[in-house]
Design a protein that fits this description.
ABC transporter involved in vitamin B12 uptake, BtuC; 313 residues; mainly alpha
Length: 313
């Protein structure tokens, strides 16, 4: 199913780009492609972590709030003169800690992930607003901006890191036992437990890893600006979860791929700018998001029904 979904997404993206190449060739200008990448590679990094969570049969809708907190942490470390490498580690650790709180409540507290992350989404967002009084982090040093690189070089570094992580996760999903146990947990937690897999530990691990990816995404997003907003990440959970689902991950867990997530992010990231270049109101972007998600879910439901009929035949 994942391979078919990936092939379908690739065809859809290719079709969209062919139309744009004919009707709006300016879409492929260097400036637009650069802006498209810089605006969406943090979404892809966050989606990698969300893919792990969804593969385990869970969901995390607090990721937007986590993104905001991690961005502020990165900014405060930079203003305090903390070296760049340590700032990166602290930011990822902050994300991992926030994800670990969610994971502990779900894995060891037995609480539904949708309830836990809905509560933490609100608590962390309001807690950050109270702590910062809505103020943005300003006075970021020049060494923090663009990782101390030029604005022209930074996209290549970010792209290289993203490719390495994407390829590494893709390989691990096929060959590393720990990640295969995540698939097993999401597919059938009881069967996985009987097979000797510590499903609670797997659940805790994916939330923690997802938080670390969120910290990395927030850090690399923060270095692009001369100040860090305390209200960042609003609506990020919709973009991320939508991309993962559109990419072929089953919302119930056990099925999906990081390649599919990449294609899902690419498709959804292209929709908004494509509408602008095609002269369509950007207000249709979210509506089109909804249509794409509904189509993806409908395709999954139809495939599941066919699978049940085959199994009972």
């Amino acid at each position: 199913m994942s391979r078919r979904r990936e092939a379908s997404l690739a065809v859809a993206i290719a079709g969209l780009y062919v139309v744009l190449a004919i009707v709006a060739p300016a879409f492929f200008s260097r400036e637009n492609l650069n802006d498209l990448f810089l605006g969406n590679f943090p979404v892809l990094l966050a989606a990698m972590g969300a893919t792990l969570v969804i593969l385990a049969g869970e969901i995390d809708i607090s990721i937007g709030s986590m993104f905001a907190i991690c961005g502020v942490v990165a900014g405060l470390c930079a203003v305090a003169g903390v070296p760049l490498a340590i700032t990166l580690l602290v930011t990822c650790a902050a994300g991992a800690a926030l994800g670990g709180i969610n994971g502990a409540l779900v894995a060891y507290g037995g609480l539904p992930s949708i309830v836990v992350t809905l509560a933490t989404m609100v608590a962390w967002r309001e807690g950050l607003r109270w702590a910062t009084q809505g103020a943005w982090v300003q006075g970021l040093p020049a060494s923090f901006q663009w990782l101390g690189l030029s604005q022209r070089v930074f996209p290549f570094v970010a792209a290289a890191l993203t490719i390495v992580l994407q390829a590494g996760l893709g390989w691990a999903s096929r060959h590393v036992t720990a990640l295969r146990s995540v698939y097993a947990t999401g597919s059938d937690a009881e069967a996985a437990r009987l097979a000797g897999i510590d499903t609670a530990r797997a659940t805790f691990a994916v939330f923690t890893a997802g938080g670390a990816f969120m910290g990395l995404a927030a850090f690399l997003n923060a270095v692009r600006f001369n100040q860090v907003p305390s209200n960042a990440g609003l609506g990020l959970e919709m973009k991320v979860i939508a991309a993962v689902v559109v990419g072929g991950a089953a919302i119930g867990g056990g099925r999906g791929s990081f390649g599919g997530t990449l294609l899902g992010v690419l498709l959804l990231a292209s929709v908004g700018p494509a509408l602008v270049f095609l002269g369509v109101s950007s207000y249709w972007e979210r509506a089109l998001y909804g249509v794409i998600i509904l189509l993806a879910v409908a395709i999954d439901a139809a495939a599941a029904r066919r699978g049940r009929r085959v199994a009972t035949a």
